[in-house]
Amino acid sequence: MRKRGFFIGFLLVALVIAGAVSYLADSDPDGLDHATMVGCEVVEVDGAERLKGDCIAQRAREHQLSSSPLADYAVGGDERSTGMAGVLGVLLTLGLAGGLFWLLRKRSTT
Q: Residue limits of the PDGLE domain (predicted)?
């Protein structure tokens, strides 16, 4: 019973942090993205953003999962859904980890 209470408390704290506190996070958290942009400027050409200058980001390509449902910390690309993406990520991670632990648990031989 005590383990169940701990798990429920852990789950609630994780969901609150993922669902509510994630909106307070920096809108430009990826230092690597920032570092690859050094030397370039974003300009708009024919309604699309392009890079002007010389930087590492000009040779970057889209990630293979960039069109996945939870890409860019959002659900379906909607930036207002950051909290929902966090909650879904917590539930998915706990589900996968819980399933893995359940499969690999040490079973009693008695």
A: 4-106
Q: What is the mean pLDDT of residues 7-15?
A: 93
pTM over 0.70: no
Q: What is the spatial distance between Cα 2 and Cα 18, in angstroms, rounded to a whole number?
A: 24
Range of the domain at 65: 26-104
Q: Tens of pLDDT along 21-68? A: 988 877 676 788 888 999 999 999 888 888 999 999 999 888 888 888
CB contact set of 73 (below 8 Å; sequence gap of 6+) = 22, 82, 85, 86
Q: Is 72 left (phi over 0), alpha (psi -120 to 50) or beta?
A: left
Instruction: Classify residue 51: in a domain, yes or no.
Output: yes
Determine, yes or no, domain membership for 16: no
What is the DSSP code string of 16-49? HHHHTGGGGS-SS--HHHHHHTTTEEEEEETTEE
